[in-house]
Amino acid sequence: MSNENSIYCPDCPKVAERVARIRLVADYTGKPIPNKEYTVLKGEAVVTQGVSDGNGVSSEEILATIPLFVEISPRFPVRKEEVKFFKQHRYDSLTLNRCTKSLAECKPYLDKIYGKVVDVPILTAECLWYRYQKEAEEIVGQGGKLIADPIERNKRINQTYANIWLKDNRFQWAGLAAFASKQVGCGLLHAIVMIKKMQTEDKAILRRRESLQEREFELNFPTITIRESESSAKAKEELEKASKNNQLSPVFSGASTAISGSTTAATILFPLSSASGATTVSSVTETVSDLSSLPSSPLPSVPSPDELKRIGMSKAAQGSFNYVYTMMALGNTALFLDVYPLHAFYKQRGLEELKTCLDIRQGIYGNSEFPVLWPIEQKKLKFGLPYKEILQTFEAIDLDNIAESVKFLAYHEQVNILQTSMYSDLTLVGLLRSNHAAYVTNLLPAGITESIELTLASQCKLPDGDERAIQFSDDPLANLAEVKQRMPFVLRAAQRFDELLHSNKRNVIEKSIQAIASGGGVK
Fold first, then answer.
1. Which one of 66, 172, 277, 301 has the minimum C-beta count within 10 Å?
2. Which helix (H) or strand (E) holds 199?
3. Cα(210)–Cα(223) distance, integer angstroms
4. Which residue spans of the chain are classified as CATH 2.60.40?
5. Is the bond preceding residue 222 a cis peptide, omega within 30 degrees?
6. Radius of gyration of the chain (CA)
7. Residue 300, C-beta contacts closer than 8 angstroms, at least 6 positions apart
8. Are 514 and 166 in contact (CB under 8 A)?
């Protein structure tokens, strides 16, 4: 029997279906947000408030038939405009700590413990850091792995730094970093070119030895006439060409007096062999003869002791160049993966959100379901630590104190990231010091060692006296790996960059950065 006060409610079953508890989850990962204060809003009006439990679930049921929104603390103003940076993302127009869709859009489901539950995705700080970190990863890698070619990787890093400054000149460190990273690319290119020259000569030595079997013999007793075949003559010519093209060839052959009998010069080229004990310094510095005529060997097809020794010296030198190549590429990549997300976050979300979220960044590392690409072991350099210089940098930018912001981020770059990831490696330190000493003292033939400098240009080298070239030191004992010696060099470069930007040379600097942004430089 019906109650005379009852009314027919056709929508009541539907309404009942939409009464549920809410579970707060991070939008990016779907992980529950436990023990968090939340507010349910209709427009700007508060409907209810509460605290999620250890599983992120509300203590009360909520009617989710209308466009209600959920926020967690701390609360931020609703975003009303989208700030563009590089790659657009759906998060760009959404408010931090607010649900990414209304309760009415979220589907309820039955939970064994809580009954009917609606998962409400919230845009958390973790979501933003994942977004920006993945954006950085896509620049230097693909599918969670780094681009295999360090030179190509470096080129993309250079372009991105340059474009950051071109999009927003307040990011002056990024403009300077475009030049500095380009200089790293110059070093990578020099190392790989030297390695390839040595490898080419090594192959030519072995090919020349093999070609001896192809020579033509004419027996006219008691005289034996030996003539070069076409292939053996070509092999000899290729060896001569490869040796001429390899600046280290006269060093290996003893034609250069720089290395002959010199332990100091040996440690410049072969510190890896010397340190490991695989090759003694005395055996490395023992000179070998010019191979253009090929030393004698019991069998034409078997390399002579001189040939084997020379190839061994070449491989030891290649190991040294390759070590520098690998370590420079590692530091270059790690720094980019650290600083790009910081710039993107600040540009799109602002200083206040950066302050709130910076401490949370380190927490996104270590999730196997959502891995973060970080090329350095955690025990050596932890990912995403909230160093004080980061906030100091962007606070200075907010106050339009641009030159000061460059100093703060330069310190973060050099001390917090590169000192740990690169300059603490004793083998690399030895190689860098040896290179610098040899360059300053002209101990080795030209082209083997490189000057430690920064050119505020798209080119690797500038004419002598050009104000855009900043040298590290002319002291052969100077140590780039020591922070107290390196920071003055970095700050001199930063000051020169700032001066040129505020002079009539600004257009020259801009054109150089534009060239790097379009894929130029490193030549």
1. 277
2. helix 172-211
3. 24
4. 12-123
5. yes
6. 32
7. 209, 212, 213, 215
8. yes
Residue 280: what pLDDT? 34
Distance of alpha carbon 322 from alpha carbon 300, whole angstroms:
32
> In a 10 Å sphere around its CB, with 0-12 CB exposed, 13-18 middle and 19+ buried, how is residue 131 labelled?
buried
Round to whole Å and give the CA distance between 456 and 489: 13
CA distance 384 to 374: 10
The stretches in the chain having pLDDT less than 70 are 1-18, 64-65, 214-228, 254-301, 523
At 451, give phi and psi (nearest 5°).
Answer: -70, 140
Does a cis peptide bond (omega within 30 degrees of 0) precede residue 32? no
Which residues, 6+ apart, have CB-to-CB distance to 333 below 8 Å? Answer: 140, 146, 150, 153, 157, 375
The alpha carbon of residue 496 and the mean position of all alpha carbons in its chain are separated, in whole angstroms, by: 25
Can you state the angle between helices 150-167 and 172-211, rounded to 10 degrees? 160
Q: Which pTM value belongs to this model?
A: 0.88
Output the pLDDT for position 261: 37
pLDDT at 456: 98
Residues pairing with 116 in the sheet: 110
pLDDT score, position 299: 53
The pLDDT assigned to 301 comes to 65
Q: Which residues contact 117 (CB under 8 A, 6 or more apart)?
A: 20, 21, 22, 23, 57, 108, 109, 110, 111
**Helix axis angle, 230-245 relative to 172-211, nearest 10°?**
150
DSSP 3-state of 440 = helix
Q: Which 3 state secondary structure label does DSSP give 21?
A: strand
Helix (H, G, I), strand (E, B), or coil: what is residue 216? strand
CATH number given to 12-123: 2.60.40
DSSP labels, 103-164: GGGSPEEEETTTEEEEEEEE--HHHHHHHHHHHHHHHHEETTEE-S-HHHHHHHHHHHHHHH
Tell which residue, 505, 516, 508, 500, has the closest CA to residue 459: 516
Q: To 5 degrees, how large is the angle CA 251–CA 255–CA 258? A: 55
